[in-house]
Amino acid sequence: MPPFESNHVKAEYDLLAPDGSEIRLLHSLSGASVVHCALPVGAVSIPVRHRTVEEVWFFLAGEGQVWRKQGENEQVLDARRGLSLTIPLGTQFQFRNTGDVPLEFLITTTPPWPGEDEAVVLEVESRLAKPHHPQIWLGAKTESR
Questions:
Q1: Domain spans, the chain
Q2: What superfamily in CATH does domain 15-128 come from?
Q3: 32, β-bridge pairs
Q4: What is the rounded CA–CA span in Å between residue 85 and residue 87?
Q5: CA dist., res. 76 & res. 28, Å (int)
Q6: pTM, to two decimals
Q7: Which portions of the chain are predicted below pLDDT 50?
Q8: Is-contact 22 35, C-beta < 8 A?
């Protein structure tokens, strides 16, 4: 049985996600992991999809938009504090910060995040704007859709 864990969101991020967002690691158990995600003011993530995981997002602060696409089903959703949404397996997605503070949300990933090759960077026409990111993880795979 794993020990109890408690954690606080750190001021500095632990790593940059393949989409360019700031990730602060919180917890990981055998069935799921939880991270705090932040996107700086004016930033737009890179469109990606996941190979093996699904996610549930819960927005804590800021304002933004989220683009999701599964086959012919496509949606752009306004995001703000209190919104929750799902990213089912294989969903293409992108998000941007339209507010004046960082866009912050919690992400629960099932199964736990397996590593840097999980996210596939997509070469698709952006629905939200040209991506802006300080760097992306090395080794991210690119895919046209």
A1: 15-128
A2: Jelly Rolls (2.60.120.10)
A3: none
A4: 7
A5: 30
A6: 0.88
A7: 133-145
A8: no
